[in-house]
Structures are given as C-alpha cells and as structure tokens.
Design brief:
- The chain has about 375 residues and is an alpha+beta fold.
- The chain has three domains: about 110 residues, Cation efflux protein, cytoplasmic domain (Alpha-Beta Plaits); about 210 residues, Alpha-lytic protease prodomain-like; about 30 residues, no CATH class.
- The chain has ten helices and four strands.
- It has a four-stranded mixed β-sheet with strand order 1-4-3-2, with helices on one face.
- α3 runs parallel beside α6 and α6 runs antiparallel to α7.
Length: about 375
C-alpha cells in the first residue's frame, strides 16, 4: 500500500509557509565569514519556507526579468566606454556582463516550462529544465573566461594605450553597483525558492561585480604610470571567473546526479520516525525536480492494524514530511507490515535425525 501527496486534497490540509531552523550548523564569523559568504553564499540546498510550486516559479521568472534588464543596461553602458577608451580590462568585464545577462534567457524559459502540468511522457513534469539551464550557465561562464583571457594575453603581447582613464573608473564602479544589486536579488530569490541555477547565476553576477572593481584598480595603475596594469587585471579577472566556474559546475553537477543535502534526509527520517504508529523507515529517497523536492519512502507499521489504520498512519507521516522538510512538495509512502514470525534453524544429528545443538550448521540441516 502506498500513499501519495495527491491524497492530501481530500483532507483539507494547507501546506503553506512554515518556519524551519537550520539546526546544528556552524558558520564562519567575522571578516572571513563575510568574504566567504560573498564568494560562495551559504545554502543548505533548501530554503526557510515551503512555497507553492506556481508561486516559486513566478517569483523566479520575476527575478530573471528584472536582472536581465539591469545587467543589459549595465553591460551596454560599459560597451560604449570600451569603444571610447580601448580598455581591455573593461572589455573583459563587459563580455562577462553580457554573458551574465544572456543566461537569464534560458532560466526564464526553464521557469516557464516548469509550470507546465505533467504529461504521460513527462510524468514528473518539466522541472528539470532548470538543470538544463544551469548547464547553459556553466558553458557561458567558461566561454567568458576564454574570451577575457584571450583579450588580456593579446594586449600583453601588443600593448596599447588606455584613454579617458577616469571614464574607465566610472564605468567600473557602475558595473560593480549594477552587478551587486542583481547578485543580491538573484541569490535571495534563488535560495528562497530552492533554485540552484538561479543561485549560481547570482554568484556569477557577484563575481562580475568584483571584476568591475578590478577594472578600477587597473585604471588607477595606468594613472600611476604602469600601463600593463590594464591587461594584468584582465588576467586576474579571468582567474576569478574560473573560480566561479568551478563552484557553479559543482552545484549543477550535484543537481543532475540527484544529490541532496544530508540534513534534508535527516530531517525527513526524524519526521517519519516521530509519526505515531511508524515502527521503522525503509528506503528513504529524496531528489530535486527543478526547485522542488520529491520524497519516496517506505514505512513499517504493526501487522495487526487494519488497512484503514495503516493508511491513516501513512497520511500522517506524509503530512509531517510536507510540513517539516523544506521545499518538499510531493511524497509517496509505501506501507509494509512488521514481521511477527521468527525463522529458527534447528540443527539435527546426521545419524539419528534428532535435534542436536552441538552439531555445527553446514547448510545441510533443515529448517524447523
């Protein structure tokens, strides 16, 4: 017997927002913790509340639209300055900003697809489109690192003067402000709805902001009489992009491989075992479908219970899961009766055929 979360509609439960604590996690504090949070925002692979599927997708789409416009305007303004000044560091930053803006398009498509109802071919729905968008984001980050590195090396080998240095500095500061605003918004929404792709894209934008500050440093170096500061900073930007690439690729790889935070599994198991009537928990599995979690598990109940009693326990266990496991939107629970018969092995003498405990078990003795 199994119990799916679809049954909950008949019982009038409202699985709205519920508070959850992070329990047991220790994080770095002080300056070190602040720096780490900027380069790799903390996430339990889950958010603090359980939102409806449609609300979370709509919020993701809204975040994508706003960030697309903001980054598009920022990158266009920087591109104009690149044409005027010839700054290769600013060019590298502008390329990265354009690629970051473009990653919003597949994310937008993914969120829209994720709202479509399951079909007989795609029985789990289209939530995995977010993971495909994440792959595109990783490819774009890799491409921007290649382009930035190529332009920086070319300028090192063939130096060229940078004009309008103060304009370059202003453009760099503009790039930092635009990217940081987008990063904060993307990461906040991504963590709230549980979208690894949106969080990765926010981290991408945050690194763009720091590379924009690096452009400012390079321009100051040019003012100080060190013209090679511009391409050198371009190479540093390339290295920074590679670090972001590693983090984003790791996150998307884990989603594609159905990895979940072990804390989510612990929370689910604790919830199941705390349900009255549950004797044991079998084969607990969780996996992400887009920015939502699905659970499949088995529970063991007293074999003397009736079918209706066992079903009621399964429903209670499912109810607890949906309320206590962050981002969980669906749960299928199989119910098994507890074993009541003990299998014993009787050792018999090979000559008399009578029970003889002194005879070692060699696979020949019969069960009795």
């Amino acid at each position: 017997m199994s119990n799916s979360s679809r049954d909950q509609d008949h019982h009038g439960h409202d699985h709205g927002e519920h508070g959850h604590d992070n329990g047991g996690h220790e994080h770095a504090s002080g300056v070190r913790g602040w720096v780490l949070s900027l380069l790799q925002p903390h996430s339990h692979d889950a958010a603090d509340s359980v939102d409806s599927a449609l609300e979370s997708s709509a919020e993701g789409i809204r975040a994508v639209k706003i960030s697309l416009v903001a980054l598009g305007v920022t990158a266009f303004a920087q591109a104009v300055v690149v044409v005027l000044t010839g700054s290769v560091a600013l060019l590298a930053d502008t390329i990265h900003n354009f690629s970051d803006a473009l990653t919003a398009i597949p994310l937008w498509v993914a969120f829209v697809l994720g709202r479509r109802a399951p079909t007989r071919r795609y029985t789990y729905g289209y939530g995995r489109a977010e993971d495909l968008a994440g792959i595109f984001i990783v490819v774009m980050i890799a491409l921007s690192s290649v382009l930035a590195g190529y332009e920086s090396i070319r300028r090192l080998l063939n130096p060229a003067p940078v004009s309008y240095v103060w304009v370059v500095i202003a453009a760099g500061l503009t790039g930092f402000a635009g990217n940081e605003l987008v990063a904060v918004y993307r990461i906040r929404v991504g963590r709230k709805i549980g979208s690894a792709a949106l969080v990765a894209d926010g981290l991408h934008a945050r690194t763009d902001g720091f590379t924009s500050l690096a452009v400012v440093v390079g321009a100051i170096g040019v003012l100080a009489g060190f013209p090679l500061a511009d391409p050198v900073v371009g190479l540093l930007i390339t290295v920074a992009i590679l670090f972001v690439l590693k983090g984003a690729a790791t996150d998307i790889y884990r989603r594609l491989m159905d990895a979940v935070d072990p804390d989510l599994v612990d929370a689910a198991e604790i919830s199941l075992r705390a349900t009255p009537g549950v004797v044991d928990v079998d084969d607990l599995r969780l996996h992400w479908i887009g920015h939502r979690v699905r659970a499949e598990t088995g529970i063991v109940v007293d074999s003397a219970m009736s079918l209706l009693q066992a079903h009621a326990i399964a429903h209670d266990a499912q109810h607890n899961l949906l309320h206590q496991v962050p981002k969980l939107t669906d749960a299928t629970i199989h119910v098994s009766p507890a074993a009541t018969t003990k299998l014993t092995i009787t050792r018999r003498s090979p000559t008399t055929g009578l029970a003889d405990p002194s005879v070692p078990f060699d696979g020949v003795n019969r069960l009795g």
